[in-house]
Design a protein that fits this description.
Chain A: Belongs to the binding-protein-dependent transport system permease family. The structure holds two protein chains of two kinds. By secondary structure, chain A is mainly α. In chain A, about 70% of the residues lie in helices and about 0% in strands. In chain A, β1 and β2 form a beta hairpin. In chain B, strands 1, 8, 9, 10, 11, 12, 13, 14, 15, 16, 17 and 18 form a twelve-stranded mixed sheet that branches. A four-stranded antiparallel sheet of chain B has the order 4-5-7-6, with helices on one face. A two-stranded antiparallel sheet of chain B has the order 2-3. In chain B, a hairpin with a 3-residue loop joins β8 and β9. The two termini of chain B are about 25 Å apart. The chains are: A mainly alpha, B alpha+beta.
Chain lengths: ~350, ~600
């Protein structure tokens, strides 16, 4: 399947699990220490590698940051020289890397070229809007996707299955910016008899006061960008869940469960779904890791002040410290979530331990 | 009865539908522009800009520097009609016979928004800080490079002593800050962003009273402004990152002014009675730069520019092959003027236009004759070779971020091929293009600069001193022009304090550039803007009659904007009723669908 946007990861092929085992409830047990140590160690090594490579990764970007920042405004050669010195760009590359490595290993992400303020502070300011939007969308799309996926698999081949899968795939293939703009035209501006229900963009209305009013205002601004994101990403949960549940469908333990006289709903909920959950959990954790990197397209269309648009702005300069900082945070989140997923697998499915 | 899963689901569906309806209702009630007859009158401006810093010492982007013009008074301002210097902080000024000492008389009775008086000492302190601290010079350092000293002998007098005469002294775009507030920040001026305490203490027509990073900037009218209080109580800049979303906000009334629009957006807004459009002359020129041979300040040649372009006659021949009228019609959709002089026609006093004999009027035959005469002969395939028999191919560069470049490149390469000059086109990232230009490794490249009321800076880019220090080093400009006559005129204009005489020199400089065919201005694009005429009654353009509302070099548009007298058309009630009915219908339908589905599923279970 091809997608028209770089915003979404490809749907991973679900791992095929041996369909043995009964419909046991999840049971927690101690994890093997070696397993945990190996996973944590691996994650730490990855993170340090990311921190050190970030420098070279963005150094190869073309363009002179000083020139880009000052382009079009009357500037004296002295100002340019001072900026170059301030950014450390007048030093040889090896010295620049030395400074960077010392700083980054001390946890200092540096000062942004264009904003002249600490990168950590900038990322902090933009982190909450991104988690608020993309986090909500991830939770909603996972909930919706799982539900639709389970229903579709359970009644596979039915009209409902075909419609649900078809709709999910169609929305997955729609360009995000186009869908977002469509939502703005229909639900924000209003068209024909439909009134403009939601704001066209931003995260809040200037001058809103009072806790309830601010809360409602924030939620109103969230609806359209969140809807857009959910619409384009829930398909991956549908497809993953549907495929892995279909794998379980013919299993003997389900026949046994039914023979015991269990209701169909209970067979599905307590026996089939837990066994089919693992691939979807992987997708979910990958996506939670990607929550912080935001969604450039949706953030742009809805003027959302998140990390995605901050990254885009940093790229155009190029604002090297900001790019490096964002890269480390984005990668760090994915590494952390993968680690959590690795640690969670044996809890969810004891077969992974062996 | 125990709560079964289906009841929970029904409850969830109803809750979600109700929540959607509840969230939608407040919007419906205010779907039309807020009724401005009661309560504070607010003017909301959609901006695609963003703020790098609110400190006037650090800000470099357009939005914050424009905001600073609204909240801080400068020494002088630009007249809304024709951009000549008019009094602001200074009411009058005089110069010494040697042109080196400027004495400004400072306006009486002005106050900062915290009630303290505005004095010459505030101005002297601001300028001195920029002169002494490289960090404070980040934003406006270029204005004070030539200052020897700035002093305030008394609260009403400011004396600036220069190293060399400088004709740009009435165009010092430096926001003046209150010394008593900023003194404590002088030590960490490179880190202080003026965004910790609101309202910001200032003295302009507006006071910056609220700021949400990445979202909006709120300005409140200054009731004590010496020129008079603005008519709108608040001006809010809201950020829109997507221009189509920005237009939707205008249609809805969430924003009352949008700029810049694309020609398609501008045309589409034409049939809306509640929206007024403005096609303004722009401040930007769009040019095709020809590499005359890259050299450093000391004359050392570098780069691999085509030797053919070092000949001004060859460069001129190329210009006859290009039809800028077609580019205006096709690329700009007619919204612009064909180019000639370096400074756009918006600067009526300084704009220069060639006469018919001198103009490069589209004439491929003439281009062909000139190339023939230079020895670039056409081969059997219709393409020319250099006088020493090598194939003649020029590399044309443009940047992907500028939409005009791609379209113009295809026209220009076709026209040049038409006269036998081969062209290879490369479109690349703006950073990469800047690297290519800095290295001198190009033949032709698209180039665009925004200009200011005072032309000194953009003119300085084309002087011999505007070239890099060493081969491949970054430099201010992006062409390698070095023309002795031009430099001589440049040196004269900067010391000429008589505006009419200076304009004459500036025009002669443009003529010299034009004759050399170094930076060939193809067109000046219009700035297209639109506003809600049911909210804004009137406001001043700058300059008049063909200027723009935003961004102006003064504060005239928002300062002079009057609220519309007719109340905006209200669609709130009908909207609310429609929304209510629609929501009820959705909830009802969802409920019915749910009930029937559950009944069917229940029947399945029983079987």
């Amino acid at each position: 399947m091809t997608t028209t946007s770089t915003d979404r990861p490809p749907v991973p092929r679900p791992a095929r699990l041996p369909s043995r085992g009964g419909g046991r409830r999840l049971r927690l047990g101690p994890l093997p220490l070696r397993y945990v140590a190996a996973k944590v160690g691996g994650a730490a090594v990855s993170l340090i590698a990311v921190m050190l490579t970030a420098f070279f990764l963005f150094k190869i970007l073309p363009g002179d940051p000083v020139r880009a920042i000052t382009h079009g405004i009357p500037t004296s050669p002295e100002q340019l020289a001072h900026l170059r010195h301030q950014f450390g760009l007048d030093k040889p590359l090896a010295a620049q890397f030395g400074d960077y490595a010392v700083r980054i290993l001390h946890g200092d992400l540096g000062i942004s070229y264009q904003y002249k303020t600490s990168v950590a502070g900038l990322i902090g300011e933009h982190l909450w809007p991104t988690i608020y939007l993309v986090g909500t969308a991830t939770v909603l799309s996972a909930a919706l996707g799982l539900r639709v996926g389970i229903r579709s698999a359970w009644r596979h081949g039915s009209t409902g299955d075909r419609v649900n899968t078809g709709v999910a795939l169609a929305l997955w293939s729609v360009p995000t910016f186009w869908l977002g703009l469509l939502f703005i035209i229909v639900f924000a501006t209003g068209i024909g008899p439909i009134p403009g229900l939601f704001p066209t963009g931003g995260m809040s209305t200037p001058g809103t006061e009072g806790f309830v009013a601010v809360l409602v205002d924030h939620l109103r601004h969230l609806v359209l960008p969140c809807l857009t994101l959910v619409a384009v990403i829930y398909a991956q949960y549908v497809l993953t869940m549907r495929a892995s549940l279909l794998d379980e469908m013919g299993s003997d333990y389900l026949t046994t469960a039914r023979a015991k006289g269990l209701r169909d709903d209970d067979v599905r909920r307590r026996h089939a779904v837990p066994n089919a959950l693992l691939p979807t959990v992987t997708v979910l954790f990958i996506n939670i890791g990607r929550v912080v990197s935001g969604s450039i397209l949706v953030e742009t269309i809805f003027s959302w002040p998140g990390l995605g648009s901050l990254f885009y702005e940093a790229l155009t300069v190029p604002d090297l410290p900001l790019l490096e900082g964002l890269f480390i945070v984005f990668s760090g989140a994915v590494i952390l979530m993968n680690l959590l997923a690795d640690l969670l697998y044996p809890v969810l499915d004891p077969r992974v331990r062996t | 009865m125990p709560r079964t899963p289906k009841h929970r689901r029904l409850a969830t569906v109803l809750a979600v539908a109700t929540a959607c309806a509840a969230l939608g209702f407040p919007a419906v009630a205010s779907a039309a522009p807020a009724d401005q007859s009661a309560g504070p009158k607010t003017l909301t401006i959609a901006t695609n800009g963003s703020v790098d810093s609110l400190s006037p010492f650090l800000a470099q982007r357009l939005l914050p520097t424009h905001i600073h013009r609204l909240i801080y008074d400068f020494l002088t301002n630009y007249d809304p009609k024709d951009d000549h210097a008019v009094p602001a902080l200074a009411t009058s000024w005089s110069t010494s016979p040697d042109k080196l000492v400027w004495t400004f008389t400072i306006r009486d009775g002005m106050k900062w928004s915290d009630g303290k008086p505005v004095t010459a000492e505030d101005i002297a302190w601001t300028y001195n800080l920029i002169m002494t601290s490289p960090d404070a010079a980040t934003g406006n350092g270029n204005f004070v490079v030539n200052f020897k000293s700035v002093a305030a002998p008394d609260p009403k007098t400011l004396v600036i002593t220069l190293s060399k005469p400088q004709a740009t002294m009435l165009a010092l775009d430096i926001p003046v800050v209150p010394k008593h507030v900023w003194e404590s920040h002088a030590a960490d001026i490179g880190k202080f962003h003026n965004d910790t305490q609101f309202p910001i203490v200032s003295n302009g027509p507006f006071i910056l009273s609220g700021y949400a990073k990445g979202q909006y900037i709120e300005l409140t009218a200054n009731p004590n402004y010496w020129r008079g209080k603005p008519k709108f109580d608040k001006v809010i800049y809201r950020y829109y990152k997507d221009s189509d979303a920005m237009v939707e906000a205008l249609k809805k009334g969430e924003a009352h002014f949008v700029s810049p629009l694309t020609p398609a957006q501008y045309n589409a807004l034409g049939d809306r009675p509640e929206i007024t459009r403005n096609k303004a002359q722009g401040k930007r020129f769009y040019a095709l730069a020809a590499n005359p041979g890259a050299t450093t300040k000391s004359g050392q040649a570098f780069g691999d520019g085509s030797p053919a372009l070092r000949d001004s006659q060859f460069r001129r021949a190329l210009m006859y092959a290009i039809d800028s009228k077609t580019l205006v019609a096709k690329t700009l959709g007619g919204y612009g003027e064909p180019g000639a002089g370096y400074l756009p026609p918006i600067w009526a006093n300084n704009h220069w236009k060639p006469d018919a004999a001198e103009a490069y009027t589209h004439n491929p035959d003439k281009a062909g004759e000139m190339l023939d005469a230079l020895g670039y002969r056409k081969g059997a395939d219709g393409m020319r070779t250099t006088p020493d028999g090598q194939p003649l191919t020029l590399r044309l560069f443009g940047q992907t971020q500028r939409v005009d470049d791609t379209q113009n490149a295809s026209y220009i390469s076709e026209w040049l091929k038409g006269v036998g000059v081969g062209v290879t086109v490369s479109m690349m990232d703006q950073g990469k293009l800047a690297d290519v230009e800095t290295a001198g490794n190009y033949d032709l490249a698209f180039d665009s600069w925004s200009t200011n009321p005072d032309p000194d800076f953009v003119l300085s880019l084309q002087t011999c001193a505007g070239r890099p220090d060493t081969p491949g080093a970054s430099f201010l400009g992006d062409t390698f022009v070095c023309d002795a006559t031009y430099d001589e005129l440049y040196a004269q204009q900067i010391t000429e304090y008589d505006q009419a005489k200076r304009s004459d020199l500036v025009k002669r400089m443009q003529q010299q550039l034009y004759r050399g065919a170094y930076v060939n201005v193809l067109y000046y694009a219009n700035v297209l803007e639109a506003y809600r005429s049911d909210v804004i009654g009137s406001m001043q353009k700058q300059p008049q009659p063909n200027g723009m509302y935003y961004p102006q070099d003064g504060y005239w548009a928002w300062w002079s904007a009057t609220p519309a007298t007719a109340a905006p058309k209200k669609s709130g009630n009908t909207g609310a009723i429609v929304a209510g009915v629609a929501t009820a219908a959705i909830i009802g339908a969802a409920g019915v669908l749910f009930a029937t589905r559950r009944r069917r599923a229940g029947a399945d279970d029983r079987e």
